[in-house]
Amino acid sequence: MAASIDSLDLAALLCSRVCHDLISPVAALVNGLEVMEDDKDAETQKLAIDLIKKSVGQASARLQFCRIAFGAAGSAGAQIDLTDAQKVARNFLEDDKTKLAWNLPPALLPKNRVKLLLNMLVIGAQTIPRGGNLTVDAVGQGETMGFRITAAGANARVGPAVASLLAGAPAEGVDAHAIQPFYTGLLAKACGLTVTAASEGEAVVVSAR
């Protein structure tokens, strides 16, 4: 049976999720500033500045990603350029361990479909905590395009509650930790699609069609 959630609770839980994503780089930024104030050693100052630059970059990347993935991203009926989606996804997800292969054509898609794609990428990334490769492919074309994300990495696995959350029928209540896959399922439903996440060989495939 599909679960329902009050709109105010949904908004609050999504806000909690965004705050969770921002806590780490903001805390590191504060630490860097404190080090600069407390230790005037030239080498320490340089290390602190490097930490601040890195933290600011991470916070900016996460904010830009969350703005599209969780935010309004324009007025009702707005479209989003997949080129912009690719840019924020790379800045948010790619690092020394994780790489993104983007095989989608340049296109303008309805905002909920792009939000769905970005949230699917978050789920895919979470299945390879040690890093690996995320590959994004189109399912179909045009404004009815669906997506297939393949996450390949060491010990890739889907969390035990993800499937039921995507289906909108969680075994337990939806909290701030579970809201992101639950929200992904809501986005898929709004787009007339069904989203799933399952192991295929040594990889995990998150698909919406």
Give structural notes.
By secondary structure, the chain is of the alpha+beta class. The chain has a single domain, classed as Heat Shock Protein 90 (2-Layer Sandwich). 50% of the residues lie in helices and 19% in strands. It is built from six helices and seven strands. The chain has a five-stranded mixed beta sheet with strand order 2-4-5-7-6. Strands 1-3 form a two-stranded antiparallel sheet. Strand 4 (132-139) and strand 5 form a beta hairpin. Helix 4 (111-126) runs antiparallel to helix 6 (179-190). The radius of gyration is 18 Å and the shape is globular. The two termini are 21 Å apart. The model has no long low-confidence stretch (mean pLDDT 90).
Notable features of this structure?
209 residues; alpha+beta; two-stranded antiparallel sheet; 6 helices; 7 strands
Summary?
This protein has 209 residues and is an alpha+beta fold. The chain contains 6 helices and 7 strands; from the N terminus they run ααβαββαββααββ.
Helix-residue proportion: 40-55%
Largest sheet: 5 strands, mixed
Low-confidence stretches: none
Rg for CA atoms: 18 Å
**Ends distance:** 21 Å
In CATH terms, the superfamily is Histidine kinase-like ATPase, C-terminal domain
Count of DSSP-assigned helices: 6
Beta-strand content: 15-25%
Strand order of the largest sheet: 2-4-5-7-6
Order of helices and strands: HHEHEEHEEHHEE
Mean pLDDT across the residues is: 90
Number of E-state strands: 7
User: What name does the CATH topology carry?
Assistant: Heat Shock Protein 90
Structural class estimated from helices and strands:
alpha+beta
Shape: globular
Q: What CATH first level would be assigned?
A: Alpha Beta
What is the domain total for the residues? 1
Instruction: Please name the CATH architecture.
Output: 2-Layer Sandwich
